[in-house]
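Sync notes, pocket subgroup
Present: LS, DG
LS reminded everyone that the earlier model was apo-only. Rerun requested with magnesium ion included. Inputs:
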Amino acid sequence: MRLVLDWDGTCTATDGLVLAVQRFGDPDVFEAAERGIGRRLTLHEVIDMELATMRVPVAEAVAFLLAELPLRPGFREVVAAHRPLILSSGFRELIEPLLVREGIDAEVLANRIDESPLARGEGWRAVWRDSAVCTVCGEACKRATLPAGEIVFVGDGYSDLCAAKAATRVFARDRLCGYLDAAGVAWEPYDDLFDVLRALG
Ligand SMILES: [Mg+2]
Ligand SMILES: [Zn+2]
């Protein structure tokens, strides 16, 4: 069994990418983009729109997240017990400093931010790790990156849906619960990550 964790809103107390975009991006673009997720827009298109409104250096957003964003209780213990893969639709630049803050070493697969457009008065640009379109959901999603074999997947949002469908066992909170119900996929609830730890035994 391999444990795979989403990052934002799963390992973190709230979604750090959302927090950063709401703080430093354009709230109107954010609202419009989020309403389009899974309907008019792919997740990558939504995040592309949101990042394009960012007007501060990445370092400033990182400093904000370091000050404002706690991790979810039990994260340290889950990492120590299961050596999970953290599979994120977010960005290494916004994830790794939080792991450093906590002194936790974990395996992370995520995308990159190109902030060079700031120099010409534009916003951040996503450098996607994998843009291949999934044949199941029709978007670039996490499914193709899942390790082989039995997967326990822990997530909270739209970016987790397709990969969760491919998992043996799913722990869900927040919007992912409704997406899974609509898809007829069984899931177990968690609040903090100690819940996951206990359930895994
Ligand atoms: Mg998430
Ligand atoms: Zn997919």
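DG: DSSP finds nine helices and seven strands in the chain.
LS: The pocket of zinc ion (ligand 2) is lined by residues 134, 136-137, 141, 143, 162 (CB under 6 Å).
Action: DG to write up.
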